[in-house]
Give the backbone structure.
Amino acid sequence: MRFAIVDYKAGNLRNVQKAVEHLGRAADIVRHGAALADAGAVILPGVGAFAQGMENLAQAGFVEAIRREVLENGKPLLGICLGMQLLGDIGFEGGEFSGLGLLPMTVPRFDTSECGARLPHIGWNSVEINSGAVLFKGVPPGADFYFVHSYHVACRDESMVSARCDYCYPFAAAVERGNIFATQFHPEKSQRYGLKVLENFLAYCEAGG
C-alpha cells in the first residue's frame, strides 16, 4: 500500500515520511490533489495557521480531492496537529474560517484566563486513552506525547474522542470516526509511543479497516 503525505506548505513532511519509512512502509510526499487517487491512504500533517493551511490546500487541489477520496471512496486518513484541526468545520484563528468539514468539530484558541498557562502549549504530556481506540492499541495508560499548539478541537460528538490531554482543562488529543483518525500531538516526534500510534494507523489501513 502507498501512503500519500499531503504537501500544502505546512512543514514537517520529511519527519513524517521518515517515521513511516522507519516502520517499513513506502510514503510519497504529494503536491497536488490528483495524486491522492493513486494512494491507499492519506496522511495530513502540518504546523501553522488554520486559514493559510486551508488556502494552500485549495490552491493545490487538495480540498475536493480529500473529501472525495476519504468521504466517498473510504480511504483512511490520519490528520496530525494542524492537519487534525483542518478536518473540522470552522477554525477561529484570526477570524472565522471554514475547514474541510470531515468531522463535526470547531477549533477555538485555548482559554488560559483562569489558569494563567502560557501559549503555545509546548512539550510532553500524558494522555488519557479510551479503551478500544485503534490508534492506541498496545500503548500504555498515561503514555507521553509531544504537543505544540495554541488551538485545539472542540468536538460536537464526544464519542469520537479517543484520547484526552489536560492543559488548563481537558481537550481532545486524538479522535477516531470511521476511516478518519487524527492526533493533536506529533506522533513522528513522540518516540516509541508515537511510532506505535503510526504503526497502528498503518496496520489498520493494510487490514482494510
